[in-house]
Amino acid sequence: MSIPGFAGTILYVDLTSGSIRKEPLDPRLPERFIGGDGINTRLAYDLIPPDVDPLAPENCIIVGAGPFVGTDIPGSAKIMITTKFPLNGAFGTASGGGAFALMLKTAGYDHLVISGRAPRQVYLKIIDDDVELCDASAFWGLDIFETVDALRSQYEPCSVIPIGPAGERLVKLSLTSIDKGGTVGRGGLPAVMGSKNLKAMVVRGTGKVTVANRPALERTVNQIIERIMKWPPRQALLKGGMYGMAVAAQPDEPPSEGQTGAEATPSRGQLIRRMLQIHLRNRRPLACPSCPLAEKERVHVAEGEYAGMTTYMTHFSPRLFGSTDPLVEYNRNVKFIDNLNRLGIDFSTFPALVSFVAGLYEQGVIDEAETGSLVLRDDFDTAMKLLHLTAYREGLGDLLAEGISATAQRLAPSLAHQVAHVKEYGIVYDPRLRGLGTMEFSEVVNFRGSHVAAGGSPSYDPGRSREDFLRHAERMGASPEMIQRVVGPEGFNPGRYTRISENWFSLFNSLSLCNRAFLNRFWHVKTLASLYTAVTGRETAPAALMASAERVWTLGKLLNVRAGFTRADDKPPEAWFTPLKVDGVEYPLTDYYRTKQLTREDFAHFLDEYYDERGWDIAKGIPTEEALARAGLSDLNVGTF
Amino acid sequence: MNEGGDLTIHKRPPIKIDSTKCTGCRICELRCSVRFERAFSPARAAIQVRRLVGHATEYGVALTDRCDNCGICVRFCAYGCLTQDREEEVA
Predict the structure, then answer these.
(1) The whole model's pTM is what?
(2) Are strands A111-115 and A9-14 parallel, antiparallel or unpaired?
(3) What class has domain A426-630?
(4) Which of A380, A415, A411, A377 is CA-nearest to residue A396?
(5) CATH number of the A9-204 domain
(6) B41, A153: Cβ pair inside 8 Å?
(7) pLDDT tens digits along A122-138
(8) Contact B50 A157 (CB under 8 A)
(9) How far is B71 from chain A (nearest CA, A)?
(10) What distance separates the 2 farthest-apart alpha carbons in chain A?
């Protein structure tokens, strides 16, 4: 008899031998590690050797759907995928939306473990009990969207995680998406699939998800839904997506002096606003299962150079290619995002790499001998050319495919510091523009790489009050003692507060709950504990749930300590200590409140405080034996570190 | 029964669907399936959301023969795709 909220089965697929076996879920796993990311990480501890080459058959892809998946809890659709990533050799869990988690759970599986390397190109088909490795030779070479279409034509209704050309060619900057919508796997998950000759996973489930106490679940879910439906910004989100919300949050900008009327050159802010007006005409919102706050997008380009094109994206997030015509700029951005998504290249790291190599060319550091006769500029044509070269590993792209450090070391070792990255992941939030909040700080300490999702807190927005930080710390499950340490009279400490953010993130990932800021804000740890109790039938107090969440984060760290990572890897990008120039204005690194410029020593002090808050060894930046015992992990072999 | 003792039959009005507003969230399927299955099971719901490959509306929504117009899907549709007139007395 399985635990309510769980399907009760782990599916093991070995690609080398073709063996497929189903094992019951050990009830001690959810007891200690909740589910989703937590159980994935615990399985990874046993199944993936710490020093394995991420592209070797011995690496595993561990897929998990947490206990909330399949219910109507808003945002309970995230699939969790744990592996050792080829971009930097770090262990981590990638997550994405779409229907894969729902389909996997209703097919009868909480987790799916893929090991080995198939002797031929295959895709994994799961239709309830029918699990099969199928010939994928006809699909090899198709891009990500084409692969989804091909599999849908056979298996719809289904959910698909495919790889594109970049994954097939083991590009370390590769990324993929689920059902064309939710991106997943920065750091090269598709390359791991490609190394296994695995073109795609397709799943359809027609079974049931039972919960222990439906009336209790329904009462709480209905209250949350009522709040979400009445949330004033909801309509703006549905209309304009994440891009619309971001633009709406920016202050209005008057036309520059001497520039009025339609003929004037638009400022950066005006260009962004005009692109939004075009985007509003072209987009329609798409949702993940159970979500009343749809933010994925289908975009149909109505006018301009690429009129008639239809594409899909997590959200429209333009970079500026240099045109002053909003329609031209909009069209180029949609095309660029479409190609990134089809070929399967990381949208956060790749643009930083393009700017870097184009800059090297413009400065005369590299020439046509290195670029393979290409003239490089930081513009649309260069970005598109390099994107295709990288995805297919041709010419200069074969080098870019290896990532930022490999590229910099080969082309210009002395200028490598110009690219802002942590553990090879391009920076998403630059603290020089925003001040040092938890999202920016967490990019440095995240064991997977500079991943912002784990660092959510009120510092997501500028100018939040001390009371906001206190209130949210309590909401996010911090104990009163922790809150006292983390939020002092002067305000919050980003190093210490990041522990709260990370534990909260681990909880969401283990439940398979969406962590987007606009959904996250509706949850209180007490609500999640009552939902967890209603779903599983296990009476669980908020403090116990948070203890499990901290255990999950600590175990993720432990996997990386075993793989050789130390404090030396939690290194802020050198570029952060030089002011950032935007439109002629210089932005130095400052604290969140913008009262003080930060030095390397200041940053090192925040790192000390982060490790101290976690109870880890400050000098080494890793968990101590005592910290592991506190986290309930002393039974694991910690190895030597 | 009404006060006079006559039998009154209430007919639930049909559910109206505007698929152009569907985002594919499947909340309707999840809610509906609980009523029939006592568990969440989108595949067994009396309302079905289907992807329309290559179609501008993206999703199509249809009711199966099992649907008795109870309206739970209408109540929880978050995007205005489903509507239903008020219950009417037909006898």
Answers:
(1) 0.96
(2) parallel
(3) mainly alpha
(4) A411
(5) 3.60.9.10
(6) no
(7) 999 999 999 999 999 99
(8) yes
(9) 16
(10) 75
